TrEMBL record:
Keywords: ATP-binding, Cytoplasm, Kinase, Magnesium, Metal-binding, Nucleotide biosynthesis, Nucleotide-binding, Transferase. Pfam families: Pribosyl_synth, Pribosyltran_N. The active site is at K199. It comes from Butyricicoccus porcorum. SUPFAM superfamilies: PRTase-like (SSF53271). GO terms for molecular function: ATP binding; kinase activity; magnesium ion binding; ribose phosphate diphosphokinase activity. It catalyses: D-ribose 5-phosphate + ATP = 5-phospho-alpha-D-ribose 1-diphosphate + AMP + H(+). The gene is prs. Mg(2+) binds at H134, D176. Binds 2 Mg(2+) ions per subunit. One of its GO terms (biological process) is purine nucleotide biosynthetic process. ATP binds at D41, G42, E43, R100, Q101. InterPro entries: Pribosyltran_N, PRTase-like, PRTase_dom, Rib-P_diPkinase, Rib-P_diPkinase_bac. This is Ribose-phosphate pyrophosphokinase. Belongs to the ribose-phosphate pyrophosphokinase family. Class I subfamily.
């Protein structure tokens, strides 16, 4: 897949080594020698075991739980590569933590997403490659190029393969007003109809479904979102579709499976038959469920990395 002679290195932190291995293997490379550990007092220790001088380095690290440890690992890996005279450093962040803290919702709130973006740039990252930022505007928080890949490029073919296209009895459902643009794109590609859940969130991680915009009675509904955290929004929406809207059955899909707190219990007790997630975040045994189907994102990231390395356009991957 690699045509020119400039060195390319794929290095991995501790957050998702399996994904980094898949990417390196697809590129016909071995994963770079990099040991990321901790000193006895908890400080992060990074040791790169091979030369990266002049190389095009891609650091694969999802900033998922434990978020702060994984962020620090990434920052110190970037610094190590910069001080080792790497030619270009691309932070490959399948899931970008802190992305939801992208604005001040009340007085004296921080904008943590901007802070993390600044720190990554200061550490020495030359480029960021990520997937489904919580808001597209987050790209403007960086003063370096950002390629924001679309999880829909994996989820839409999966849905089409499972349910087919152009079906009048299928509905794509946005679980809130903020996800309407994403849901509309699914509808356009699959030729399904659109419904919207209108809800009010009284406080963080607590949601209350108000009403359903669209006729879902007797329809098979697919809830689409960018991430699932505590699964409250998703499960309340599924219940409303069945109990209020009279939907026939409910499925769901999302790019990032954070699945914190009571998420798995809520999912198990919900009317959702199947939840398709991308493996931007590894799924530990404690968070596995028969309802969850994990789809691979390595092929998309592999193609994007190859295009960045070859200095060719990444934009075809956004269509």
């Amino acid at each position: 897949m690699i045509s020119h002679g400039k060195n390319i290195k794929i290095l991995a932190g501790n957050s998702h080594p399996a994904l980094a291995m898949q990417i390196a293997s697809a590129l016909g490379l071995s994963l770079g020698k990099c040991t990321v550990g901790h000193f006895s007092d908890g400080e992060v220790s990074v040791s790169i075991g091979e030369t990266v001088r002049g190389s095009d380095v891609f650091l694969v690290q999802s900033t998922c739980e434990p978020v702060n440890d994984n962020v620090m690992e990434l920052l110190i890996m970037i610094d190590a590569c910069k001080r080792a005279s790497a030619g270009r450093i691309t932070a490959v962040i399948p899931y970008f933590g802190y992305a939801r803290q992208d604005r001040k919702s009340k007085a004296r709130d921080p904008i943590s997403a901007k802070l993390v973006a600044d720190i990554l740039t200061t550490a020495g990252a030359n480029r960021v490659l990520t997937m489904d930022l919580h808001a597209h505007q987050l790209q403007g928080f960086f003063n370096i190029p950002v390629d924001n890949l679309m999880g829909a490029s994996v989820l839409i073919p999966h849905i089409a393969g499972k349910f087919g296209r152009s079906r009048d009895d299928m509905m794509i459902v946005s679980p809130d007003l903020g996800s309407v643009t994403r849901a509309r794109k699914f509808c356009e590609k699959l030729d399904y109809r659109l419904a919207i859940i209108d809800k009010r969130r009284p406080r963080a991680n607590v949601s209350e479904v108000m009403n359903i915009i669209g006729d879902v009675k007797g329809k098979t509904c697919i809830l689409c979102d960018d991430l699932i955290d505590t699964a409250g929004t998703l499960c309340h929406a599924a219940e409303a579709l069945i109990e209020v809207g009279g939907a026939k059955e409910v499925y769901a899909c999302a790019t990032h499976g954070v699945l914190s707190g009571p998420a798995i219990e809520r999912l198990e007790n919900s009317p959702i038959k199947n939840l398709a997630l991308l493996d931007t975040i590894p799924l530990p045994t404690s968070k596995q469920s028969d309802k969850i189907e994990l789809l691979q994102v390595a092929p998309v990231f592999t193609e994007a990395i190859a295009r960045i390395y070859e200095e060719s356009s990444v934009s075809p991957l956004f269509d």
